[in-house]
Design brief:
This protein has 254 residues and is an alpha/beta fold. The chain has nine helices and eight strands.
Length: 254
């Protein structure tokens, strides 16, 4: 059978490839821009999240965040935030982040791993909002995660800070509840509504994020380990005037 093919052209796509040589120093510079000392007071507790996704240099980033809060005389601790990953058990989640180098010994702080949650509110749709028990008891929460396209959903919000608040800190209870809810409501409807409840009732305040370009990993494999450029973004609302506990976040594309 004769088959006529259309004309073909070979194309090459070039991505921006900014890199950072010293990840710890770059992380520290961005943290300093947030002036967290104006919000986080000596003696206050800070829950720093650790997810299940592999992010390059995540141990270095997490340790720098922890040390920054220590420099403010705060009391940081680490909370695994990964929904039902790690076998949906406290031990399994602690073991998972240990593979990334996030341990009590390496970080110099306590790892508080639990599957227990508290319900911090309810959506108009009748869906309860779950939040990690240890994080709910902290004065502040720092979400550390990555931003990337979701494998199943397409929208303005896919896989990033919202999902960490929704699924990561919702633990198994939250993951089960929200995955069930999106069968009746849209993913974006649920993720926006849950984030609003969490920010209002659990915590709030500035956020900042790490960005990693699509080609950075390939470039790094041929050279010394590097991260790409970072940027800072603050919440548009002055959340601390509401009296809520401090909620901070940082994320990385990988």
């Amino acid at each position: 059978m004769d088959l006529t093919l259309p004309s073909m052209y070979r194309l090459r796509q070039s991505f921006e490839r900014p890199v950072i040589d010293d990840v710890a120093a770059a992380t520290q510079r961005e943290l300093e821009k947030l002036n967290l000392g104006e919000t986080v007071k000596p003696g206050q507790t800070v829950a720093v999240t650790a997810g299940s996704r592999g992010i390059r240099h995540i141990a270095t980033i997490t340790k720098t965040v922890v040390d920054h809060f220590k420099s403010l005389q705060a009391k940081p601790f680490i909370v695994p935030a990964m929904g039902s990953h790690g076998g949906a058990s406290a031990e399994g989640q602690a073991e998972l982040i240990a593979r990334y180098g996030i341990t009590a010994e390496e970080m110099g702080v306590e790892i508080r791993s639990s599957m227990d949650t508290v319900v911090v509110g309810q959506l108009a749709e009748g869906v309860p909002v779950h939040f990690d028990k240890h994080a709910s008891e902290a004065d502040h929460v720092m979400v550390v995660g990555r931003i990337k396209p979701h494998t199943m959903f397409v929208g303005d919000i896919e896989s990033g800070l919202h999902k960490m608040m929704l699924i990561g800190l919702g633990k198994h209870n939250g993951a089960w509840t929200y995955h069930k809810a999106i069968k009746e409501y849209s993913f974006e409807q649920i993720i926006r509504a849950v984030a609003e409840v969490v920010l209002k009732n659990a915590a709030s305040l500035p956020d900042w994020r790490l960005w990693k370009t699509p080609m950075t990993k390939r470039r790094e494999s041929k050279r010394s380990p590097r991260m790409s450029s970072m940027s800072v973004k603050r919440n548009c609302c002055n959340w601390h005037e509401t009296g809520c506990r401090g909620f901070h976040s940082m994320s990385a594309i990988s």
